[in-house]
Design brief:
This protein is mainly β. Helices cover 7% and strands 38% of the residues. The strands form five sheets. The protein has a seven-stranded antiparallel sheet with strand order 14-15-16-17-18-19-20, with no helix packed on it. The protein has a five-stranded mixed sheet with strand order 7-12-13-10-11. A four-stranded antiparallel sheet has the order 2-1-3-4, with no helix packed on it. The relative contact order is 0.10.
Length: 397
């Protein structure tokens, strides 16, 4: 059973005996319990003096929900393989830096890790079916609107309708050896019949240092030299250069604007996005501009469906910062990064991290575009023919 603290946004799942642990701020925090085929229930956390007894009522309507499974769609009550569907209402609400961040803590067995911590330019490690190769873990195959090998950098949180995660052997049966590590199917939002609808979403986020490694200050180092506890040299400086590596004014923000609508047989949705992500470290940031257009046309009494998607992403990444923490922390705390005349001090064996951030540059400009089209024709009830094609191009400047 899934458990979510609606006050903090943190989630967990119960074990086979129904036991769980979750952090709460106070007894009034509202806990939401959910499970497929049952109605969700919300209760207050309480004081912890007595155990919570939660009984979920069955909800047959959930079993009629349609799930995209790669070779078609099925009602949830007809599915026998290991498939998990996550709708947009169940996403991990946050300023996600990658579309897969929305699934953190939502799918059993799905491990999502950031290889660079808070670095906004770091990649995402995804492991769904454990270690699947001798060389290590392989990533699941990404399918976006039926097109294999989709680029998640072209998707924003507000463009995604749902995820379907295929975890067992049925994934390989559909997509071959590319799916040995599982499959994640992404369904994007489409236009719906009705007048034009306008949506705007935004978020703001900042990151702060909660706890830093406990190393000696300059005064503590001098005291141990004087007591004979440390054999070292007192260079006379007393500055905390660790703070010089931190972007104290980091403020990230994201803006997404979308318009959608449609008539009897034609539907459209267009969105534009701007995202400015500032890292916790100095000189470590990423600015992105994205757009996406989706057109759908039906005909022949809804037996024919044509879909056309265009997406583009432009990003400018500052790659210089994000390192040097160990060098600064293990350096003699009484040694300055500056010469007496104010110029930067350089030594043969230790990098001057402050000088590196001031004097060097490391950036990357990247442009990614994608065009795909898909045509479905229903021959008879239960039999459909599909033709699709896609083209993607990347430029690194």
């Amino acid at each position: 059973v899934g458990v979510r603290n609606l006050s903090t946004g943190k989630s967990t799942v119960t074990d086979a005996q129904g036991m769980f642990k979750i952090e709460v701020n106070n007894e009034n925090d509202l806990l939401r319990f959910t499970f497929i085929g049952f109605k969700a229930q919300e209760v207050k956390a309480g004081t912890g003096g007595s155990p919570l007894s939660i009984k979920l009522a069955s909800d047959d309507t959930k079993l009629n929900e349609v799930v995209v499974i790669g070779y078609g769609t099925q009602n949830r009550n007809e599915i026998t393989s290991a498939i998990t569907k996550i709708d947009s209402a169940d996403f991990r609400q946050s300023g996600s830096r990658n579309a897969l961040d929305l699934l953190i803590g939502k799918v059993a067995g799905l491990q999502i890790t950031r290889t660079g911590g808070t670095n906004p330019n770091s990649g995402v490690g995804v492991q769904l079916r454990g270690v699947t190769t001798l060389a290590g873990a392989a990533s699941p195959l990404i399918i976006i609107d039926g097109i294999p090998g989709g680029n998640l950098d072209l998707l924003q949180q507000d463009d995604i309708e749902s995820f379907s995660v295929l975890k067992d052997g049925s994934a390989a049966a559909i997509y071959g050896t590319r799916a040995t590590a599982g499959v994640i199917i992404v369904t994007t939002k489409k236009g719906k019949r009705g007048p034009s609808r306008f949506d705007y979403n935004a978020f703001i986020r900042t990151e702060t240092l909660v706890k830093r490694p406990d190393f000696m200050t300059a005064s503590q180092y001098r005291e141990r030299i004087a007591n004979g506890q440390v054999q070292g040299t007192d260079y006379g400086s007393d500055e905390d250069y660790f703070q010089n590596l931190i972007n104290k004014d980091n403020l990230s923000h994201n803006h997404n604007f979308a318009v959608s609508g449609g008539g009897e047989t034609s539907f459209y949705r267009a969105s534009v996005n701007f995202r400015d992500v500032q890292g916790f470290a100095r000189e470590n940031s990423r600015k992105e501009y994205g757009l996406r257009l989706s057109l759908t046309q039906t005909g022949l009494q809804n037996r024919l469906t044509a879909q056309f998607n265009v997406a583009a992403n432009f990003n400018n990444a500052n790659l210089l910062g994000g390192g040097g923490w160990e060098t600064v922390l293990t350096r003699n705390p009484t040694e300055s990064y500056y010469n007496p005349d104010g110029t930067f001090k350089f030594t043969r064996n230790i990098t001057n991290e402050v000088a590196r951030l001031e004097q060097e540059k490391s950036s990357r400009q990247q442009q990614t575009s994608s065009v795909d089209a898909k045509v479905d024709f229903q021959i008879i009830e239960g039999l459909k023919a599909s033709v699709f094609g896609a083209h993607q191009r990347n430029w690194n400047l």
